[in-house]
Amino acid sequence: MSELGDLLELLHGAAGRVSSVQSRWRLWRHDQRVREAFTAHAQQTGGRTYATQLAGPGGAADRLPGHTEEVRFWWQSPASLREERDPAASEGSWTGQPTLVIRVGATWWSFSPQAGAMTNAGDERHSHGAGDQFLAMLDPSELLGLLDFTIIGRGERAMRPVLLVLCRPRRGDQRGAPAFALHHLGLGAEEYAIEVDTERGVLLRVEARFGGHALQVTEAAQIAFDTRLDPGLFRFEAPAGEELHRVDVAGRFRHGVPVHEAVAAVPFTVYTLDDAPPDWQLTVSVHAGSPRPPSHPSVGLHYRSRDAAAHVNINQMAADTAEDYSLPAGEDVERDGRPMRVRRRTPDWPQAQLSTTLADTLIVMSSDTLTADDLIRLAARLTPASAQPPRI
Fold first, then answer.
1. Which CATH superfamily is domain 3-244 in?
2. Quick check: 361 and 270 in contact, CB under 8 A?
3. Any residues with CB less than 8 A from the CB of 327 and at least 6 apart, and which?
4. Helices (H), the chain
5. C-alpha count within 13 angstroms, C-beta hemisphere, residue 373
6. From CA 319, how far away is CA 356, in angstroms rounded?
7. pTM for this structure?
8. pLDDT class of 269 with cuts at 50, 70, 90
9. Which of 17, 8, 20 is nearest to 141 (CA)?
């Protein structure tokens, strides 16, 4: 078999050559290049990208153009893993990941200083992506149909011999579940420089590149295979003084709420369109807010015409949260004495957006079917909602 054939066989069978892993990884990411690559991928595949919330209760979305952190990762076949991040590094993490996550089968537990101790209690509707980035390194078989491989040399990584390989995405459909495998390596990259363990076939380093520069790097600093792992690694104990919360309770999110119940659930005025077109249907969602993880109380109104030709989202929060929720570059306008900020739809930005403050409420509107002028007219017609249930 050729050297390339040997490489493909290595990658294809990697998952069957490892029964356990204990490892330490270094992660680096350039925020601006990641956004550019993601946007380019969305445009190539017919997708759309939007940005309304630039910052949340945690602070600025991008503190630095590049960010590095270390993660310790253990995995035991068939489905047990543990991921640990340095609490100091995780405070400024681009991912917002918890400092500890344990998964055993469908059940996961996590802890972070911001969110506290949480679990899904085995409810598969609430999955957790922790560890998936490293599992993709341990089983690269899904990449075989997505990339073309060129061997360019040999080297060493984490005291193990590796093949140095340059990979470029194949032309064709890069959508759907198979292409999602590239998400963990750096979605939208124009090429990937990978290092393949010559014995196991797992990836020990991936550098994703866009525009000739690295946008994301995942590399093993230390790694050991098939060692006996302490079962206690996969048992979760909440830190002293911490109470374990179920994620579905902690979220405190309700969908399909009557308007009068939404009014009673939040500490600010809720506004609705009393004169919405008769064929528009309204769905209301409420998030009660939470100190851990930190989130503001909010109400979401989704108006949609029965033929789905028109729809608009109207998100509402307390006015004193306005500095945490910013509209991207737009223009300031005024209607009926109400100052507003709008961003208009363009070929490169296919969503109209508007933000305004009414009394004690911040209003953020968006639609990819209506124009900015439509949103201005709708915003001028918002009125306080009644706290009384409707009469039948």
1. Lipoprotein localisation LolA/LolB/LppX (2.50.20.10)
2. yes
3. 52, 341, 342, 343, 353, 354, 355, 364
4. 3-12, 31-44, 87-91, 132-138, 176-179, 183-186, 247-251, 259-265, 372-380
5. 0
6. 9
7. 0.72
8. very high
9. 8
